[in-house]
Amino acid sequence: MKHNVHVGIDIGTTNITTTVLDLGETAVPRSQSVPNKRIPTGESFAYAQDSHAIEQSVYSLLSRIDKPIGSISITGQVHGIVYYDAVGKAVSPLYTWLDQRAMVPVGGKTSQDALFEETGILLPSGYGLLAHYANRRLGKVPEGSVGFCGILEYIANRLTGSLSTCSDPSCLGTYGAFDPVSSEFDPTVLREVFGNAGHRFLEASQPFAIAGHTAQGIPVTFPVGDNQAGFFGMVSRWESSALISLGTSGQISLFSQSPVCPDSMELRPFLGQGYLHVGATLTAGKAYETLQKFLMSVYQAAQVSITDEEVFDLMKLAAVASTGGDPLVVDTRLNGTRKDPTIRGSIRNIGLDNFTLGNLVGSTVDGIIGELQAFSADAADVFSSVSRIVATGSSVRKNQLFSESLNRVFDMPASIAQVDDGAGFGSALIGAVATGDIDIDTSRTVVHGMLGT
Question: For the domain 5-226+422-451, what is the CATH superfamily, name and number?
Fold first, then answer.
């Protein structure tokens, strides 16, 4: 007997991925991906992707699914925007979260600075409201556009053939100037961004709500941010677990019913169940890669031929063989922090005998994990109930040094979520809840049964 499957679509910056969840099976769902490439625009400040190509990739991936589909849910990259016309079709590329148009001076002032001067609110470059504000000042709002939204809302609209005026609060927060407690945008910012008073932007949908149906009658949920979808898909015990993501950068997410969040962290809405307190670092895997590049430069200076992978292998072997002793103290804030981008990294506690390759590699990994562990002190009240780490991301899945460091630095057990795409899996689970196939408590049982996390 064939079960209706639930499909999670993860529209990432690098790949577009589908994860197919069959609640009648116990195996961890596998994912399929296609590349999501950057496109040239002739603008040095732009980081754009083809909105129409993304839509076609989604249709192509969906066509490969050979089971009846019970729901479609979308997650993925946030912050960026795409403009659409009166019938809902894109009239611009997707300007992604990496786009820097807000930092281009107009009349001697960047759009980021101009918005801050007018509203007192500083939005990071790449946030959706700021990107539109910059386009207005640059004269780059596309002709024929009647509005804009994120790529997640755009694809949901295209699948349902509608122009929805709502999205999940987890997505709305990434446009900027959004209060996760009241689920409202700051009216002063909206007035300045859109140029008129009383302008209504996207409004908050209810959690686990259906946005519409495809032409074939398949329910499509309102899209959900990838952080929230990932937590929902990889953590079964919300209150006692910290989700740590280790890729190019690092992130720690803690669940709480309380909206009181430390200044060093960001408060994000979580599917109507409470909040995620999120601390983010700017390097993580990038710091480890920087050490690898340094070692590669030493070999190149000595005219020794060696591949990148061989250097990474050497680093792991040296760290495993290290006999310990007096550790180095490596500050891995090589690109600063979100609060202070001027901070730089350092190596301290160098003695006559401890400046070895193995010690340097191991201490670098500990520094990466230690930067995330520092958030646990900032959020001591929330972290006091945490008794285990759930880890995900390329760094921790490919390198056992990171999982060992998580155990050591946090002094608690760490489990790796062995799933191709945790956010896509979580998105598929959200669809299963939205259509009534399972409830929220059962979804947590599914996560524990399939992933053990």
Answer: ATPase, nucleotide binding domain (3.30.420.40)
